[in-house]
Amino acid sequence: MNSLITSDISSSADKALTNxxxxxxxxxxxxxxxxxxxxxxxxxxxxxxxxxxxYEKELQxxxxxxxxxxxxxxxxxxxxxxxALNKLERLDTINKQEREAYELLAINLFSRQSPHxxxxxxxxxxxKCSSIINEL
Length: 136
What we know:
The protein has 136 residues and is mainly α. The protein is built from six helices and two strands, in the order H-H-H-H-H-H-E-E.
């Protein structure tokens, strides 16, 4: 199997097979995030959804940011939810009706709640350079 992957990588013109497991990881995190949402584990679901942003090439951008928006909203991180909704509104792949639906959703959500995080995010010091790292 390794020799087949290696020969495919060396013969591939676009080098799309550089990391053949990236798609499997993307699906894993996508399903994990949905499971965490259904289990009402919103903090972990949000962290998993934020991780999905790294897999935009493997998954549809609309699916990724929809999960980020939902998980962030239920986790009380309204700033992150607002950013995700803005990303969804600016997608080139959606039609005018979908764009208006996202805008209306954002207006309805943030007319009641300002787009500021109600939860305090944890920050850690990097063990190597001592810079501050946000948990997300």
